[in-house]
Backbone:
């Protein structure tokens, strides 16, 4: 016997490996947790299903009505043949229409059109229901205080003719009873509540409330519930949808939006045409005035200049100047000839008729000058023949003087006429030359004015044409969209969706179940099966002992001789065989049986293992060293004796005198005896070592049932004196942290002869074997010991 036998397989793992062993996933244990959680999982699914049903039952369904429109939008630039390659006109135009449909301006028009100034609701047991178009009463109102908008006013119809109004005025509270058709007047409002055709004795009586809606509240309602989204940009189709608790209300409001959009676009188009016509009329007036001014200019110009063609006038002026020059030249010649003739006559010289042309002078002057020149010649002839004093010459001279006087008078008068005519020609020429200088600038101004006039005239005609086209377009204005799908009357609500809610309930149940199982798995800190134990410890596991279910045991009992063919006995035989390998077949063996705390089955293992060993013909002694709470005698059905281990250790008795036989031949036990005050000190004494040596010589196997090592130090003292220590762990009872205590114990005391036995293992589909514990030996060890001392 040695304090630490050289047994194999007691190597210590590192702390890291121990930690990994404690944190690894244990599939077998997880399956065990799953099997044990089936009822809880079923309960979780039942709760999730019930919650889904309650949600569907007590959630107001939301309906959605929708319509589809096709917009026939044309870009003005495209119409004019101008296309911006970088601009997607269809997308921009469609986006613009969508923004228009979602604008406050458009919704304010919708609010004016739907006549939804008052909304009526009925109080149900849990939910409220809106009475849209089927309210049993109608409210006419006139508010003096805007603060009463959007506030619910309770009304309870108590009879066919009476109702109670519960909306408190500002200066008082409570309810007031009124009759239908009665005007209710306060400082804040005037109300007139009347029955409608929907009122019925069995249907109208009840509790309602109504709300006087403000325009801003209704606009906010549309902005929050109306959705306008494109369906196809290429096809320019959009969808208008509205969600509400009342499906008829949703359909009517979508229809109102479609109708108003039709009217709105037509009005907008006509308004645009009216604006264009107004502009055209204004431009026409301005153009007409300008044209009139130009026409006045042309008229005055024509009157002043007596022409409408400056170029022709220029040519004509040149011709006139040339004509005047010719006339002047002719007159000048005539005047020269006349003056020459006068001068010749004044000098009494014969007229040189060859110097002037008789055709250039008038006939009467030409004949007079010819006659004078003839008579002057005749006189000269007479003077050649006669003297001046002769009668013939005198007579001729007298006739010549008379003729001269007449000719001189005629020529003088003619000369004066020529001078006057010449002067007139000079004046005319001067005027023509002056006009000729002014004509180019006048022509330029005239032509310039003519061009402006032509432009204004063309512009005027184009305005007239555009005005005619717009008036035709106004007469034939049509809407810019087609209703592909009118507002629908929804049948099924969009929220809550039954399948979705039940699906969410099922998924929630599944997730909660997984969470529950996961938490149970993570919070389960107890050892359940042998493989888990093998994974958590670094010492050999000799085997497992199944739970005994045939009967309920109030105390630990020796059972192997009663059920020798049971799984319980076979498991102990297997442990016995494994012990032989660890002890290398030694003849005398001291085996300590201990555990972390009480209740894990170390006494049961010690007694029944002793019985199995005794069945092989070995002489076995089971010693009760748990002197604080002895119970070996209970396992053998004996009463507590007044002598035992405690009296042996104090030297009062010999152990041979204290040993008692059992029902199994070769199996004897030594009870704890009276409870000593100092069991640890007794076991540290020499008498305990002597007892071990004597018992080892007397018995083949000595089994020491020690106190739990997690509670007192007695067990550690005994383990140091044993050849093999069996550390008992109880399935589904011992915590994993106990194994850390075992590992710490091994490391601190350098034990290498410790093996582990898993006790009370549940075996599925096996019946009739197992055991139970009916005594209170657990965490309250010291408490119970203290009670016994008391």
Residues:
């Amino acid at each position: 016997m040695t304090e630490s036998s050289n047994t194999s397989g007691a190597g210590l793992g590192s702390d890291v490996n121990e930690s990994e062993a404690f944190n690894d996933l244990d599939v077998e244990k997880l399956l065990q947790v799953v099997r044990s959680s089936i009822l809880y999982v079923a309960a979780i699914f039942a709760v999730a299903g019930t919650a889904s049903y309650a949600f569907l039952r007590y959630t107001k369904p939301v309906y959605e009505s929708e319509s589809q429109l096709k917009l026939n939008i044309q870009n003005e630039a495209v119409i004019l043949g101008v296309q911006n390659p970088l601009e997607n006109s269809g997308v921009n135009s469609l986006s613009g229409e969508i923004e228009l449909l979602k604008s406050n301006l458009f919704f304010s028009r919708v609010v004016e059109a739907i006549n939804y100034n008052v909304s009526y609701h009925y109080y149900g047991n849990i939910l409220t229901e809106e009475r849209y178009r089927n309210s049993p009463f109608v409210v006419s109102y006139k508010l003096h205080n805007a603060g009463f908008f959007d506030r619910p006013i309770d009304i309870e119809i108590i009879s066919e003719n009476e109702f109670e109004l519960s909306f408190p005025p500002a200066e008082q509270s409570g309810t007031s009873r009124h009759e239908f058709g009665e005007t209710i007047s306060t400082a804040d409002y005037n109300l007139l509540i009347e029955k409608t055709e929907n009122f019925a004795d069995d249907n109208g009586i009840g509790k309602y409330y109504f709300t006087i809606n403000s325009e801003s509240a209704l606009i906010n309602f549309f902005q929050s519930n109306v959705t306008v989204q494109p369906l196809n940009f290429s096809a320019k189709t959009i969808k208008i949808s509205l969600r509400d608790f009342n499906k008829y209300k949703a359909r009517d409001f979508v229809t109102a939006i479609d109708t108003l959009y039709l009217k709105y676009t037509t009005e907008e188009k006509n308004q645009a045409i009216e604006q264009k016509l107004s502009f055209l009329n204004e431009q026409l007036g301005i153009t007409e005035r300008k044209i009139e001014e130009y026409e006045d200019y042309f008229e005055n110009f024509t009157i002043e200049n007596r022409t409408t063609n400056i170029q022709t006038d220029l040519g004509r002026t040149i011709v006139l100047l040339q004509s005047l020059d010719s006339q002047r030249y002719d007159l000048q010649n005539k005047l020269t000839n006349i003056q020459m003739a006068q001068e010749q006559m004044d000098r009494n010289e014969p007229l040189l008729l060859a110097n002037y042309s008789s055709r250039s002078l008038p006939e009467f002057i030409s004949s007079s000058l010819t006659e004078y020149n003839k008579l002057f010649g005749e006189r000269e002839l007479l003077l050649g023949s006669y003297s001046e004093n002769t009668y013939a010459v005198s007579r001729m001279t007298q006739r010549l003087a008379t003729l001269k006087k007449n000719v001189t008078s005629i020529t003088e008068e003619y000369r004066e006429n020529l001078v006057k005519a010449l002067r007139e020609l000079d004046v005319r020429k001067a005027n023509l030359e002056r006009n000729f200088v002014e004509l180019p600038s006048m022509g330029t101004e005239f032509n310039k004015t003519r061009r402006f006039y032509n432009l204004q005239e063309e512009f005027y005609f184009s305005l007239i044409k555009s005005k005619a086209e717009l008036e035709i377009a106004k007469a034939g204005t049509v809407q810019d969209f087609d209703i592909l799908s009118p507002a629908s009357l929804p049948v099924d609500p969009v929220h809550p969706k039954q399948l979705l809610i039940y699906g969410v309930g099922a998924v929630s149940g599944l997730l909660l179940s997984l969470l529950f199982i996961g938490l149970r798995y993570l919070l389960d800190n107890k050892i359940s099966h042998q493989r888990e134990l093998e994974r958590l410890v670094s010492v050999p596991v000799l085997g497992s002992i199944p739970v005994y279910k045939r009967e309920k045991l109030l105390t630990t009992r020796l059972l192997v001789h009663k059920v020798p063919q049971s799984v319980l006995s076979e498991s102990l035989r297997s442990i016995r065989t494994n012990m032989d390998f660890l002890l290398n077949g030694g003849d005398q063996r001291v085996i300590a049986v201990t555990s972390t705390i009480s209740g894990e089955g170390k006494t049961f293992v010690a007694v029944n293992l002793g019985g199995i060993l005794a069945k092989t013909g070995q002489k076995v002694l089971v010693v009760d060293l748990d002197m604080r709470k002895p119970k070996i005698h209970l396992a053998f059905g004996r009463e507590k004796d007044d002598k035992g281990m405690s009296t042996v250790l104090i030297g009062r008795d010999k152990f041979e005198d204290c040993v008692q036989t059992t029902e199994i031949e070769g199996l004897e036990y030594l009870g704890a005896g009276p409870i000593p005050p100092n069991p640890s000190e007794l076991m540290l004494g020499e008498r305990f070592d002597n007892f071990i040596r004597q018992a080892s010589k007397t018995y083949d196997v000595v089994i020491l049932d020690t106190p739990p090592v997690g509670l007192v130090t007695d067990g550690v003292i005994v383990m140091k004196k044993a050849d093999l220590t069996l550390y008992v762990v109880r399935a589904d009872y011992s915590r994993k942290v106990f194994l850390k205590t075992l590992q710490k114990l091994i490391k601190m005391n350098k034990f290498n002869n410790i093996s582990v036995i898993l006790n009370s293992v549940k075996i599925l589909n096996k019946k009739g074997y197992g055991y139970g514990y009916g005594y209170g030996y657990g965490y309250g060890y010291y408490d119970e010991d203290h009670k016994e001392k008391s």
